[in-house]
Amino acid sequence: MEVPATVRSRPADALGLETIVSLPEDLPPLSPSDCVGCRHRAVLRRGAKAQRPESQRPEVQRPRLHTPQDLEAYVEAVQHRANAEIRRNLVFQLLPTKPRIGDKLFPSRVDIDPIDRDTAVEQTLEALASGARLITRPVLAEGPFRVELDLLVRADQGKGVDEFMQYTPVAISSHSVARRAKATQLADCRVADINALGLAVPAPTDYRHRAVAGDAQKIAMAHVVLQQWGFAANTVALIGRAGPGKPRCFFFDAPSVLPGLYAALEEPIPSTPRRIKECRTCEFHNHCRAQLLQAQEISLLLPGDKARTWREKGIETLPQLAAQSSGEQPQLAQAWMDGQVALRRPKNRWFEAPELWGGAPRRVGETAGAATDQRDWVEIDVDMEAHPNRGTFLWGTFDGSRYIGFGDFSRDGDEGLHVAEFWQWLQAQKDQALAEEKSFQVWVYAAQGENYWLRHAAERYGGRSYEVPGTSARVTMPTLAEVNAFITSEHWCDCFSLVKKALAATDSLGLKTVAPLAGFEFSQAGINGKAAVELFEQAIGGSRTTAQAARRKLERYNADDCVATSAVRAWLRRGAPGLRELRRQ
């Protein structure tokens, strides 16, 4: 095809990018995912791409499922792609199809064929040359870069084709994409409704953008290619939510995302793997882990930068670390090699904590014997599930015998009603316990999330009264002062803080790791916080059958976490049996 004049007139290396990245001709171009996270994974991915035809999409290749971890990673990847496609389609359905009253522009649109990858770049260039106001699923490639984007929005107000055409690259995000600026001068966003994209000039707002690395690198790389082609506006954009409202498109200055791209391009590439947090769900997990195990690499115990101090002393392996004469980490290195998940710290550091015993002191050597020991306690375990854009959608409770959940699975949200119902129920349990002169404790596992979302609801809806559907009852959202008073009181307890005092771990002290030590078995294997978010999207956006199944899974997952917290606490009261004790030194 003939390349548009605006592309031909652009200097070959307008930004000096060829001096930043120089690729051999037989290697595939860089994608945004190559500039995010583990650089060793990027090397392996690029090597795999170089060995298969460009037209082979990863999602249609036969997966290599050798272990349960392989299956979990594959299922998570499929779910991620499916939910991303759902988000894209929902946005595309909202794009304008005709001018609104007062609009002077017509929303011309070109959809790039997502199947025909071999000609996608050419299709995108033709769409740009046609002056289309909206281009969905564009693919941009120039020099070292290739970007598969969600949307291009024409930013200038010209009609038809001219030399001044400018386009803004847009990514559709599953994350919160903006937040209210703390000061007016810090606001950097202009906003437009999705049904006005390509027609209306974005309006100034008091929001400041927030872009996760993957989204930032995608729009940054797309902007760079558009600059090379001569079509770049001075803005980039993200479509997503800013709080509980509807998704909108937030525009902000392109230079704000370019430093992150340049820094990623200049970062050195490791020649051998080192374990980091991302390894759990990486497609190359087995490949790298085999090398790490063979070398007994120290990052198996101390991932990321945690081993920096030891590496500076020349200690690179677990046997070398275990041979050190003193300290907690050498003992944990030996425990790791012995297959131990955790070591128990001396009981005098944690067993006597009054919080563990309903506020009463306890002596080492005593355990929770007969059930009557706890007849004056009322304990409730709480777990919360939240969507990063929507906020909380389920607060679960377990009182020792019964699970009760307070959920919001409506498509548009209940504006905090389920939080107010949860709060009123919880306060009623507290008032009854205190009236009967019993100790009252609410237990969560790692309280930061619950604290944040309770405060968030109180800040947004505090004092609001709700009518409970199907009843004559009303509930009221607590004020921020009421929430702060409760979560800083002796009634709000964090089981995770006790676990950290009691155990030294060779890996994680998360609930999914610790609860099995206490004898608890989770019924929903393979579901984690990220998967719960995707299940919630299915529960509010899928077919009726899919939605009901997703909701049942979420409620069972939430109930498991409530009961697991109770099991861990009971296990600690028995002295955390079954673990080797950390030696005093």
Describe this structure in words.
The protein has 585 residues and is α+β, with helices and mostly antiparallel strands. It has three domains: 5-18 and 29-49 and 73-266, no CATH class; 307-339, no CATH class; 349-573, Nucleotidyltransferase, domain 5. 37% of the residues lie in helices and 16% in strands. It has 18 helices and 21 strands. Helix 13 (448-461) runs antiparallel to helix 14 (480-487) and helix 16 (511-517) packs across helix 18 (544-573). The relative contact order is 0.09.
The class by helix and strand makeup works out as: alpha+beta
Q: Supply the number of helical segments.
A: 18
- The shape, in one word, is globular
Rg calculated over all Cα atoms: 27 Å
Biggest sheet: strand arrangement = 1-2-5-6-11-12-8-9
Q: Termini distance?
A: 74 Å
Based on the structure, what is the oligomeric state of the protein chains? single chain
Let me know the average pLDDT.
87
Whole-number count of domains: 3
The biggest sheet, with number of strands, parallel, antiparallel or mixed sense and barrel status, is: 8 strands, mixed
Low-pLDDT segments, ≥5 res:
1-16
The proportion of residues forming helix, as a percent range, comes to 25-40%
Organism: Corynebacterium macclintockiae
Protein name: TM0106 family RecB-like putative nuclease
Pfam families: RNase_H_2
Region (Disordered): 46-68
